Amino acid sequence: MEFWAEMDRAELVPTYGSEDSGCDSEKQSGIPPGPSVAQILPRQILDLSDEVLMLILELLDPTSLLNAGSTCRTLYRVCLSDSLWTRHCRFFFRLSLCDETFPPKDAFRLLYIWHKVYSTLPYNRQLQDLLFKTCPPPKYWTQWLVLEEMVPLPPVQLPDYEIEELWGIGKECVLESHRVSDDQSTEQLYKYTWKELHNIAVLQHEHLGNVMKYVLRKQFVNSHDELEWMYHQYCRFRFQWMFAYWLFGVSKPCSRNLRRIYLWWQTYSKKKTFCWGTAGCDVQYFASLHHVTEDYWRGKLAKGDETLDCHFTSALTPRRTVPELRWIERISVFTTSSE
Length: 339
Fold this sequence. Notes:
By secondary structure, this protein is an all-alpha fold. Helix content is 58%, strand content 3%. The chain has a three-stranded antiparallel β-sheet. A hairpin with an 8-residue loop joins β2 and β3 (189-192). The longest helix has 24 residues, at 225-248. The model is unreliable at 1-23 and 319-339 (pLDDT under 50).
């Protein structure tokens, strides 16, 4: 940026051979005017060709690429290039999208949001309720889960045709040893752990990148409002969730020791600390007892990155219409009230 500022200032300084130099002797001498500095070098980065801009933008990470694309229309157009996001998909997810019809940016966005949401499973009560409420979970979430090698859910029982539809696992790969004998069911059910399903899917598609592409093809026709809403909940409450998990997500002996250490030399209300670790305890009150935990609760210890994920996915997310935004807001209000 300092380089381009120097170039802008150079335009204001009279140069040799310029019309504003005021050198009448040079004009009378017949010496041909030389090119000015502004004529030799581009005045702005937007004067560069798209090919050169692409070479520069290839050096940026996804967050910086989105920040650059939000500055003006020209950079926004160049930052939407499929080749840039294909590189990021290959680097972050080992996913090759050379011959796919769906945009690489949308693929990167979905995979990024899914992995972020799934990583919150240990302390995300809303995601836990959604996945543990039924066995198997809803079809939308079941299809995503095969991408993870470690899934803390009980084994799933599904017919062979549904296994093939969800993850592209052919019937020849479904072993008869996993068949479940159920007299009440007219279908042939097969029982697998999630790790076994993950390994079979990788074996069927040769590597994990092909499994991701198969899942993305199936998911692109679905609505992702619930996944996006859950991600926005993570962006808003992730510090509170992680603090509560750190404070209460331990065994009972450790919890007693942690309670004694945490409340040491602190003036606290015995009425509020009596319900330590229960569902009705005031977690924000416990965070306010120490200035460090209070700052963590408010996201002040993130070194300026407390809203990074929010800005990142908001830039990744395409612009929605007013009816779509109202529908998402209605879903969030309903879910919050039901809790």
